[in-house]
Amino acid sequence: MKLLLTVVMSITLSFSAFSQQQELNTEFRQAAEKLTALLYHIENSYVDSVSTNKLVDDAIRKMLEDLDPHSVYIPAEDVAKANEGLEGNFEGIGVQFNILKDTIIVVSPIAGGPSESLGIMAGDRIVSIEGENVAGVGITNKDVTDKLRGSKGTIVNVGISRRGTKDPLDFEIIRDEIPIYSLDASYMVNDKIGYIKLNRFSKTTMDEFTTAMKQLKANGMEDLILDLQGNGGGLLETAIDLADEFLKVNELIVYTEGRSYPRRDRSATANGDFEKGRLVVLMDEGSASASEIVAGAIQDWDRGLVVGRRSFGKGLVQRPIPLPDGSYVRLTTQKYYTPSGRCIQKSYEDGAEAYYMEKYERYETGEVFSLDSLHAPDSLKYFTDKKRIVYGGGGITPDVFVPIDTTQSTKLNTDLIRKGVMNSFAITYSNKHRKQLLKTYPTVDKFIESFEMNTVIEEFKAYTADEDSEIEWTDEQYAASEKMIKGRLEALIARNLWNYSAYYQVFNPYWPAFSHAVDILNDNSYKNYNLARTEF
Question: What's the rounded Cα separation, in Å, for the pair 486 and 507?
Fold first, then answer.
């Protein structure tokens, strides 16, 4: 009860401070008094005992749910975890792991983390934590996270089983701040084309991006493919900073506006890192929010080509609002608009569930297979700097549409991915042959050039038969999906030998949107799209 009174008093006081020269809104005051009165009577008169805190939490969630899909409540105990992806770090021992055959396998130690500095290696098996056996006991991903994460400076004792070592190795690990990287991959596609993939927009993104760009330029990069497929967004300021790297000084990037917030323009500053050079941005239905700000600005100024499929359609800005007990509300306060005036927010009138399911309904409508199925009214028509037509009201529509390729989609391929069999085999194979593989293929380029998958596939087929995964292997289905199965498996092996960048370097050529982007840059058809930049 005290919590509710504190919350209501805080809201009332905050509103009073905000409205010092106005009378307190009568409707607001009556609503607050009504809620307080109801909670008072429940606390003192209801037939059964209840948790007032839970009632308040549930009421807040319901209120926000009825507003829009992106206004959310975060309980105090979840605030730190909810901010991890945006802050770009967490505190723990610094390993990427998988659970394979009921055992925790270190996929790789995180660079610069305490585990790497102690010599913990990819392929190590964590068999005990604080003296407690964790192998063969049904441990879950959440269990591992709960046991290994902790405050910076605290100690956790871990027992490691390592191939070639008879007895377990004991490590005393001092937890530290561990970076969460927002840049998955950065490499040269060929002598002129560079590639960068971002998975989110966090506080560390620009530092990661700047470092990658410096290396790519040193390697001779002239053109860039920026991969924002599946990037669900993040910090608005980071999106603005990234777009600034591509646009000329004073070119508008985005503007925001809301009922209580006047229009605010955000424009490019001087000295962007890639203001010249051909640029392709990859998007799909999983690209949202900050990704759409960057793509929208690039498209509206005709700075580069957007290739792929229509993005998610999130054009709302959330502001974090602290509550007295340490919890937070991320409240939608503004909409954002691209330079041409587009609000790309899609409709949420049918509720949150329908809102999030809409991107899957694009399969049923045929949109992911053909852009002809997408019909936008003239009221949503806008024009780029070179008077090309673009549309608002539901995501960024690409300049070059690339349909989903289902020609190699079979039940076998789907099951191998969904049931984790590919991943578990790649870990097992990489650990078994690690020394020899790295000796034979000292670089990713050498691996791509010379690694032979045919013998690996035979071993993989036998592995699926021994696994308790209920994989139904048929030669007919394998023949239909052979290219994708081989490509993904080779990429997973590369990831386990090196890093995530190696995964994309191996697998991207199998991905249609990436291949289209490379073709557009290689065959010089880029210039046919009537973009504003004529000098590169």
Answer: 10
Sheet holding 183-188, edge to edge: 183-188, 193-198, 223-227, 279-283, 305-308, 400-401
Closest CA to 329 of 86, 85, 70: 70
Per-position DSSP letters for 434-463, written without gaps between them: HHHHHHH--SHHHHHHH---HHHHHHHHHH
Whether the predicted pLDDT of 323 surpasses 70: yes
Residue 266 near residue 253 (C-beta atoms within 8 A): yes
Q: What is the pLDDT of residues 472-522, one digit of tens each?
A: 888 899 999 999 999 999 999 999 899 889 999 999 999 999 999 999 999
HEC profile of 140-178:
CHHHHHHHHCCCCCCEEEEEEECCCCCCCEEEEEECEEE
Q: Which pLDDT does position 271 carry in this prediction?
A: 79
Active site residue 318: yes
Q: Please tell me which residue in 197, 314, 346, 359 is annotated as part of the active site.
A: 314
Stretch (H or E) spanning 262: strand 261-267
SS3 337: strand
Could you confirm whether 203 is annotated as catalytic?
Answer: no
Checking 135-144 for CB contacts under 8 A at 24+ apart, the result is 135/102, 135/103, 135/104, 135/161, 136/102, 136/103, 137/102, 138/102, 139/99, 139/102, 139/104, 140/99, 141/99, 144/97, 144/99, 144/104
Q: Exposed, middle or buried: residue 173 (CB in 10 Å: 0-12, 13-18, 19+)?
A: buried
Residue 73 CB partners (closer than 8 Å, separation 6+): 57, 60, 61, 64, 327, 328, 329
Q: Is 128 a catalytic residue?
A: no
Q: By C-alpha distance, which of 189, 315, 297, 307 is closest to 242?
A: 297
Residues 6+ apart with CB under 8 A from 170: 157, 158, 159, 160
Alpha helices for 498-511 (secondary structure H)? 500-507
Spatial contact of 202 and 180, defined as CB atoms under 8 Å apart: yes
Return the closest-CA partner of residue 69 out of 357, 351, 292, 313.
351
- Structural domains of the chain, ranges and CATH numbers in brackets: 2-66 (no CATH), 89-179 (2.30.42.10), 183-404 (3.90.226.10), 411-498 (no CATH)
Least confident of 68-72, 304-308, 419-423, 507-511: 419-423
Strands 279-283 and 305-308: parallel
Q: Find the catalytic residue in 10, 96, 128, 318.
A: 318
Residue 228 contacts residue 295 (beta carbons within 8 Å)? yes
Q: How confident is the model at residue 15 (pLDDT cuts 50, 70, 90)?
A: very low
